[in-house]
Structure formats: C-alpha cells, structure tokens
C-alpha cells in the first residue's frame, strides 16, 4: 500500500483525527505524561485527536506490513476512537475482536460495504 493512498485524517462520529504514519517505532505521551514507545502497530490519542500507524515491521528485514495489516490497524485505532467518543471503555481484546470481525465482514460481503458508499 502506498502512503499516498492512505488517509491523512479520519473522522470518527464527528471528531477529526490526524493520522501519522511511521516506518519505525511509534512513540506518544499518555494523559499522565508517561512516554510510550515500542513495538506498537498503532496508537490512539483521543485527547489530542491523533492516530498513529506503523507501516513496517521492526525487525532485521524491515518489511512493510500487508494492506490487510495496515487496514486492520487503521480500523482498530478508529474503534478506539469510537470507544473514546461514546465512553464505552472497550478493552484491547474487545477492540481487537471487533476490528478483525468488521474487516472480515466487509471483505467477505463487499455488497454490504458498497451500501455505505
């Protein structure tokens, strides 16, 4: 997936998020000021309106992630945005399962996805 094909902003139920992409490690500050970094696929900062997405695996080969992996990460972090927006308190496991499930639903049933256009 080419970076120019990826969204630079995402709107989640009326809240706009800037999307930052990285080929290396992602870092961000939590609300309490603690700096988080490491082998993250992505992150969501609702208070700052930022979603971060890593595009490459951090290993000796530095391989780019597949289109499905990048798409799933964008969907996953957007679901964190929904949880934040509606104060749902979804766990990481719940967000993961919803992301994988919704992505599979749309891939397996493109006519449903096309109804949203």
Strand and helix map with partners:
Blueprint: E1 9-12, E2 15-22, E3 26-29, E4 35-38, E5 42-45, E6 50-54, H1 67-85, H2 92-108, H3 110-115
Parallel strand pairs: 2-6
Antiparallel strand pairs: 1-2, 3-4, 5-6
Textual characterization of the structure:
This protein has 117 residues and is an alpha+beta fold. The chain has one domain. 36% of the residues lie in helices and 25% in strands. The protein has 3 helices and 6 strands, in the order E-E-E-E-E-E-H-H-H. It has helices spanning 67-85, 92-108, 110-115, and strands at 9-12, 15-22, 26-29, 35-38, 42-45, 50-54. The strands form 2 sheets. A 4-stranded mixed sheet has the order 1-2-6-5, covered by helices on one side. A two-stranded antiparallel ribbon has the order 3-4. Strand 5 and strand 6 form a beta hairpin. The chain is globular and about 40 Å long. The protein starts with 8 loop residues before the first strand and ends with a helix.
